[in-house]
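User: Could you write out the 3D structure of this protein bound to zinc ion? I've included everything you need below.
Assistant: Certainly. Input first, then the structure.
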Amino acid sequence: MFSRWRRSRITRRPFSEAWLHILETRVEAYARLNGDERALLRARVQVFLAEKTFVGCAGLDVTDEMRVVVAAQASRLELGRRPTFFPHCLTVYLYPGAFVSTVTDTLAGGVVDERRVVRVGESWRRGGVVLAWDETLAASLGHTPGRNVVLHEFAHQLDGWDGSVDGVPELRGQGALDRWQRGMQAAYLTLIHDLPRGQASIDAYAATSPAEFFAVTTELYFEDVDALRDRYPVVPELLEGYYGVEALGGRVRHLN
Ligand SMILES: [Zn+2]
């Protein structure tokens, strides 16, 4: 276990000039933060990089640019919260681009169905997160409005804090839990109603499950909140309460 003492020692080290240059040129959201928030993000990046192992897949050589971009994007999710540092994610696996993943479903009667699906990201309940570097970088540069695979996969990590990835992250108290479940469920049902009528303002993938709804709406909250505000206004309210930062990822509202 990494102790608080060890973490605070890590954050007292000087932040490398090379890493700073990467934040300034490869992480568009960094420019949206004020000085205190930038300092906080840099400290979180230091801890993240000290604690996570990066593995390049399909021949990819992992560089500092890749490590710092992933660490910064993941850390944006915890700028306004007491950080967990994503304890179930020990390893980040990076592919150059989209990768093929085998999905196993156990069907009725014990039949096991294996499918191969192409993905740009994957979050495991225990052990790690898998990312396509091309999508990761494009999102970090601000080239894919509303889409950010690192935010998506690390939202799944936060969701799974209690072992179940069900669209309900750690919330303080029964009142907060009730408000979350009522609000998110109502918005999820509105989306399911909207989709066949062509009225949905967000990606249909969010309707796959409450867990995907939380991950997709997290991406939008940090990158394109207007897509949520019209049809699903309760969602940005709940996400602001949970993440403790204003929409679009700036301004820390409060530190939980
Ligand atoms: Zn997902």
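The CA atoms of residues 74 and 150 lie 6 Å apart.
User: Perfect, thank you.
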